[in-house]
Every structure is written in C-alpha cells, then in structure tokens.
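Data availability (excerpt). The following record was deposited with the supplementary files.
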Amino acid sequence: MTETVLLVGGGGREHAIARAVDTSTATETELYACASNRNPGITSLADGFETVSETDADPIVAYAEDVGATLAVIGPESALEAGVADALDEAGVYAFGPQEAEARIETDKAFQREFMDEHSIPGCPDYAVFDDAEDAADYIRKYDGDLAIKPQGLTGGKGVRVIGDQITEDEGIEYVLESDYETFVLEERLVGEEFTVQAFVADGQYRVSPAVQDHKRAYEGDEGPNTGGMGSYSDATFELPFMTESEYTDAVSIIDAVVEAMPDYKGILYGQFMLTSEGPRVVEFNARFGDPEAMNTLPVLETDFVDILVAAREGEELPDLVFSNQATVCKYAVPDGYPTDPEAGAKVQIDEESAGEALLFYASVDERDDGIYTTTSRSFAVVGLAETITSAEAIAEEALAKAGEEGLRVRHDIGKADLLQKRIDHMSEIRGD
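Predicted structure:
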C-alpha cells in the first residue's frame, strides 16, 4: 500500500520532516505539502504543493482529501492551536500531531503549569498566573528572587523576558505594564543549562530521541534578544557533554509522567528542560518538533519515519528508535538585523550541492525566477554530521563559508569547543563538582 503523506508547514523544521518522509524505504510513499510560503526545499521533494494558511483547517482538509492523504504531519504550533489536527482526524486523515485540547500544553502556558500541578508532574517551578498587569507588577516587586515573565499564549519563542538575565526588575515591571499581552505566567527563574528531549507519542506510548541544546540568543556569547533559535547541537550519545546519563533519564521520567497523564496525546512531545543543581526542571513543553531541533534529530534517525507514523495510526506498538552514533551541529543563517529589524532581499548563494558534506534546510526564503532571496525571518540552516561535535561544527562552517555572508548573519560559536567547555564548566560549578 502506498502511504500518501500530507505535510503542513513551510519552515526549516518541515523541510527536515519532508526529507525524512522522502528517504523512507520500508513503505512506498507520496508526499504532498501545504503552507503559506513555498519552501524550495520542500517543493523539490513533494509530489504536489498547495499555498494555504497553516491555520486554515478547511482548505487543508480539502487538499488532503483531494490528494488522497492517508497520513498527515503537522509542523507549526499555530496549526495545532487552530485545530488543524482535529479537522484532519475528523475527516479520516490520521494527523500525527495533538488535537487542540492536548496542544494546550504548549499553546497555553497557564494551562501547562496548572496541568503539571494537577497531575503532580515533576520539575514544575514556582509560578503564578495574572490577568491584571498591575497585580503582575506588584508580584514582581514583592517576589524574593528573579522571575521569568511569560505571556500566556504563543509568541514564536520571542515573548519571554527573564529578570536577572535579559532585563532588570524595573524593566520587567515596565514590560507587563506596557505590553499588549493580557495574561502572564510569572515563574521562578531557573538557573543551569537548557536542553530539549523530543519524544514520538501515540496511544500512551512514547519513544525518545537524543538531547539537543538550542541557542535562542541572537548574538555570539549568548548575547542579544531571543530569537526563534539560531542553531543547536547534539552529541553522538543521547546525553550532551554537560550532563550525565542519569540526568537524561530524569528528564525522560518527566515526559513519561506527561504521557501517562495525557493518554490521548499523539505526535511529538518536546520537553524543554533546565538542568539545575536539583536536576532537570521544566522550562516548557512544546507540542511539535523543535525548529531547529528537528534538524538535529531527524537526520540521525535510522528507524523509518513513515513506519513510525503508520504504527501510530494503526494503534500498534511504536518501533524502537535507532539513531546513528553521530553528533550534529545546526547553524541558522538569518537576515541582517534579525530579529529586531531584519533586512530582506539578500540573494542566497547556497544550494544542496554547494553545501558539501552538510545538509541544507531552507526556512523562510523567497524563490524568484533568478534565485532564492531572504525574507525577514530565518533563512536557511546547515547541519554537519560527524563522530564528534567539533567535527560536525567544522562541516557546518565549511558550508557557511561557501554560502557567504552578504546580507546574512550567523552565530559561529554554536558547537565550538570553547562554548561547549563553558557549558561543562557552568554545570560543574552549579553541581559543586
């Protein structure tokens, strides 16, 4: 039987998913995609493409039915919040992505913390929810310690402000008083090293992937505003260099508790953790693959991706996930001025052939008759794969050198030995080693 897969979304994460479907060998597949933008990496792999908003369920369902989709994979969180998975499921197209009610674990930060409280999910920080800005400001003034200030809903990874790290207490008070956001979750600031674990979930089962560390800050040395993610790395093991095997296992036990408490969940459950002196604590959960973390995880996944989707749809036991023993380093090229004042229109001087040993994933680009150009969002990512993080980083850098940097900016420090050692030293200090 041919499996016809519909991919919803047009970013770098979705390009990685498209590649995973395209390289499936256990099952004959066809791939169709729909998104608001035409990602040239996705369209080169897809048998068909429809331009449609990722949050507009009706035309997505219509396209799924038109192409005879038997499976769907939903990339962006905005589509999950809009109930696209619900609509596809109702139409008889199995969507590998949580329905709107379960996706609230990402889309509603107040729900996320209250859910953790209600089900005694470990790793939850102290928090309080406010729908009155003056009350939130007063809480900040009186709180004994630093706080993370989080708008309740989706912010594209750019809405959180952390007192004592990014801003002062006075700036935090100004943020809640002058922001357009209506509801805030104020949480104790967690200190340590962040990492993520992405799990494939269906029918109360889950299978986990290697830990990844993303780099949210815009500039080298972890400076500047938060972004959607400037790049990330994973090791040849499931752990990262600054963590122990037991610390990784402790993070997985938190995912286990969430899956047990949410038996109808299906899709990817992404746990973002802070490794603290007390072990892993939960920064947040996401209800889909990370971007860029999907570009670290999927290229080293040796288990057939479509086989996983079919097992989930059929209610069968999920296959054990096998990953190649390779480290990965992903680096995003973004337009000059990103994220505060991005300048679009630079020509992208790289393609899959010129990327050499690295994998190339397009994100938000404008394909014209004479080439591919940047927009105001992240442009493309290159991913190096090798036996060590250092070697993978060198492969990514070689590809970026061929791409050039006119009109583009890159965080070159991601995956470099000195930054890795800084992470290791930081955790040793926190643990009191």
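Summary of structural features: The chain has three domains: 3-101, 126-188, 193-422.
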